[in-house]
Design a protein that fits this description.
The structure holds two protein chains of two kinds.
Chain A lengths: L1 H8 L12 H33 L30 H34 L4 H16 L2 H15 L7 E3 L3 E4 L2 E4 L1 E4 L4 H28 L5 H19 L4 E4 L2 E2 L4 E2 L2 E3 L1 H27 L3 H9 L4 H31 L11 H12 L2 H30 L5
Antiparallel strand pairs in A: 1-2, 2-3, 3-8, 4-5, 6-7
Helix pairs in contact in A: 3-4, 3-8, 3-11, 4-8, 5-8, 6-7, 8-10, 9-10, 10-12, 11-12
Chain B lengths: L4 H14 L7 H9 L2 E5 L8 E2 L5 E2 L1 H14 L5 E5 L5 H6 L5 E7 L2 H6 L2 E3 L4 E3 L1 E6 L13 E5 L4 H12 L4 E5 L3 H9 L5 E5 H10 L6 E3 L7 E8 L3 H20 L6 H4 L5 H6 L6 H5 L5 H8 L3 H8 L29
Parallel strand pairs in B: 1-4, 1-5, 9-10, 9-11
Antiparallel strand pairs in B: 2-3, 5-13, 6-13, 7-13, 8-11, 8-12
Helix pairs in contact in B: 3-9, 3-13, 9-13
Classes of the chains: A alpha+beta, B alpha/beta.
């Protein structure tokens, strides 16, 4: 603006003194800040390194390649005592991922159900949901985790008295053991079948929308999609000769050999995290739905939409815009809270990392890894949720 | 306590990075200025370090710190105890949070060299064992193929366990908990078949379990676990004080000096006794503590045998036999370097 005015009035542009030029000043301040921060980090790093050297503590990340020598009870990737510390940390990281992802899904379901229940016109349902929210929000998560762990454990029988189903599924206090699927040649057909099914659903959804826009004819998209997603892969699987076998768990003296084992620590942690975070999400959902004007519902009914359609097409899309931002921070909380796993012996990243830290003494390196992982997880969750938030944001037409 | 371990580690690291830790000599100065020793102990292991119902810490690990306080201040009470989990212990010592780690910690080569620690002696010669419910009818550790085993993380026990099962071609599932009380819950609930740690620890935990008779310790000892106090590397004066406080207790037992007879023993003709008690020579001065250091240790803490008996042996609920922890003169391993 200033430049334009000067040009139009034909005066010589008077250059402000450098210390008054906002552009130079901000560059200068930023440069100073960067120098100070880099200097501070360099000072800390140098000081740490020299202190470690003086105390005779070995540093560096070489230890990641050494043999770990300790066992881990629950692992998604092949891990044994002869694996490396790096493998152990990766095992812990995947365990954190697993419980965080399952927890987020479960907490979201619990949150939406309870949040809707709190708004129910049924007195009992509303008050039960209210009691649930108030109780779980106000009891420390650590206590809840230990409670769930002890409850889960004491409810389950010993391995010698396993509850079994079809002699293939076993439930005991070492966890739930199910047959392990073993993939054989030809399983590619199944993958192809799934891809085809997904493509078909996408195509069908678009076609249905076009047809509805053109003719007003509704089409049962959800039901049809489900049918396609289930039937096409099954057909592909059968056509290729069912290339899948199962390893059935068999009982030995102390445990069940073979099969996939889901440890009780995982179940307790998943329950604890989901029910706790679910209570917070319920409040967020309730607030989101209440934020949608009453007139919107009335207008929807006036148009002749059924209550279900009103919720699905009018209320929830608008509520989501209020719900998603605080929901993101609940997801982040859940992920970070999963580190309380140490208390109930679930081998997550913090638990395994703590063992590695202690076996190797590489405290700085392990804590650095922890920090990088949790920051990355948080940023990834935020990125995804922000993307989703933009997608559902109100589009003005 | 447990969930703060991440925080503790972080704060300790910050301390490691920012502060200049005490080096060569200054630990004793810092202790004198502060007026007490900061002693890192186990959060609760009967016989080694355990707070009683009045909050007073007792145990053989505690006695080592009390002995050093008696040597320096002439007052064994001038110790502050910090309960540490197996995971927190080394960082707490490295970062200067505690002056000495007396927490039934095994002296190993890698800890002595790569962790910046210096071990100052052996308070208890232990070995790793296994405890199982009697109802399992297991007679030997070689029958444990496939068992779920409860163990503390980051311990030598955890590594020995894996080695032992691997060497014997057996499989096991580790179940990891930070604290003994968590392990005891999981063990009594049947989450694990076996509880493994140092044998003394098993006896100690067995007492804390409901119906101790329902659990038995298997005969096998699968490792050497010399337990003793450790200090930071690089301050030999402080290491010497810790080392010789323990040796004074062992030497006193060998010489027949106890808390009961220490005053009359000052008049003994035995030059070894006279040297130990500071009647002749100036051992205390060389060590940087008052001349009557050993007298203070013996009157307030007692000799090694008294401490053992009071905390672990016949005078305690644990009733552990001296075994390899007898004096070398009685066929055991406890041997103090000569105080001269």
């Amino acid at each position: 603006m200033a430049v334009q005015r000067e040009a139009t009035t034909g005066q010589m542009p008077t250059k402000p003194a450098p210390w008054n030029d906002p552009r130079i000043r901000s560059l200068f301040i930023q440069a100073v800040t960067i120098v100070v921060i880099v200097g501070f980090i360099a000072y800390i790093a140098h000081n740490t390194a020299s202190n470690l050297a003086r105390q005779g503590i070995a540093g560096g990340f070489d230890f990641l390649n050494y043999t770990a020598g300790f066992g881990i009870s629950f692992s998604l990737i092949p891990y044994s005592e002869v694996s490396t510390y790096g493998n152990a940390l990766l095992t812990g990281l995947l365990n954190t991922f697993l419980v965080a992802i399952c927890g987020i899904v479960l907490a979201t379901i619990v949150g939406f159900v309870v949040g809707l229940a709190r708004l129910s016109s049924n007195f009992l349902v509303a008050k039960l949901a209210y009691a649930y929210v108030e109780m779980l929000r106000n009891i420390p998560l650590l206590l809840q985790l230990i409670f769930w762990y002890v409850v889960v454990l004491s409810a389950l029988p010993t391995p010698r008295e396993s509850l079994s189903f079809l002699d293939a599924f076993f439930l005991n206090n070492r966890g739930l053991t199910v047959p392990r699927p073993i993939l054989e040649d030809g399983i590619g057909f199944l993958v192809v079948g799934v891809v085809i099914a997904i493509a078909a659903v996408v195509f069908m959804t678009r076609w249905a929308k076009r047809r509805r826009d053109a003719t007003g004819q509704p089409f049962p998209t959800v039901l049809a999609s489900l049918a396609v997603l289930v039937l096409v892969p099954i057909a592909a699987f059968l056509v290729s000769g069912a290339p899948l076998e199962f390893e059935i768990p068999t009982a030995s003296r102390f445990r069940l050999d073979g099969g996939l084992n889901l440890v009780p620590e995982f179940v307790a942690l998943l329950f604890g995290l989901s029910l706790y975070t679910g209570a917070f999400i319920a409040e967020i959902v309730r607030a989101g739905i209440l934020s949608v004007g009453k007139g919107q519902v009335e207008a929807a009914s006036a148009l002749g939409l059924k209550p279900g359609q009103t919720s699905r097409l009018v209320v929830i899309p608008q509520a989501l815009r209020v719900i998603v931002p605080p929901l993101t921070s609940q997801y982040l909380n859940l992920t970070k809270n999963s580190s309380l796993a140490v208390a109930i012996g679930y081998p997550d990243l913090v638990s395994v990392g703590g063992t590695v830290l202690n076996q190797t003494g590489q405290a700085i390196e392990v804590v650095t890894i922890w920090m990088i992982v949790y920051v990355s997880l948080s940023l990834l969750t935020s990125l995804f949720m922000n993307w989703y938030n933009r997608k559902i944001a109100l589009v003005e037409r | 306590m447990r969930h703060t371990s991440l925080l503790v580690a972080g704060v300790s690291l910050l301390a490691l990075g920012v502060s200049t830790p005490v080096m060569a000599g200054p630990t004793l100065d810092a202790i004198k200025q502060r007026g007490h020793i900061e002693c890192g102990v186990s959060p609760g292991l009967a016989g080694f370090s355990n707070p009683d119902d009045t909050g007073t810490w007792t145990g053989i690990d505690v006695d080592v710190c009390r002995a050093a306080a008696a040597a320096i201040f002439g007052d064994a009470e001038k110790v502050t105890y910090t309960p540490l989990t197996s995971q927190e212990r080394f960082t707490a010592l490295q970062s200067g949070e505690v002056d000495v780690l007396s927490r039934n910690t095994t002296w190993t080569l890698s800890r002595d060299t790569a962790l910046g620690l210096e071990f100052t002696g052996v308070t208890y010669y232990d070995g790793q064992g296994f405890m199982v419910p009697t109802s399992l009818n297991v007679a030997s550790a070689t029958e444990l193929d496939g068992a779920a085993v409860c163990v503390q993380p980051g311990t030598t026990t955890e590594l020995n366990l894996a080695d032992y099962f691997r060497a014997n071609g057996m499989a096991f599932t580790p179940v990891i908990f930070q604290n003994d009380d968590e392990i005891r819950v999981a063990f009594t609930q049947g989450r694990c078949d076996v509880f493994t740690t140092d044998q003394s620890g098993l006896y100690s935990n067995r007492l804390a379990l409901p119906n101790p008779d329902e659990w038995e310790v298997l005969p096998e000892i699968i490792s050497k676990e010399p337990l003793g106090p450790a200090v930071r590397q690089g301050d030999s004066q402080w290491a010497d004080i810790m080392r010789w406080s323990l040796y004074a207790m062992i030497e006193a037992e060998e010489l027949g000096v106890s808390s009961q007879n220490v005053e009359e023993m000052k008049n003994s003709d035995n030059p070894s006794i006279r040297r130990l008690l500071g009647v002749e020579d100036k051992m205390g001065e060389n060590l940087g503590v008052p001349a009557d250091w050993a007298v203070q240790i013996l009157t307030q803490v007692g000799n090694y045998g008294e401490s053992f008996d009071r905390n672990l042996g016949e005078g305690s609920p644990l009733k552990i036999e001296r075994g390899v922890n007898a004096l070398w003169t009685d066929g055991g391993l406890q041997y103090a370097m000569p105080v001269r």
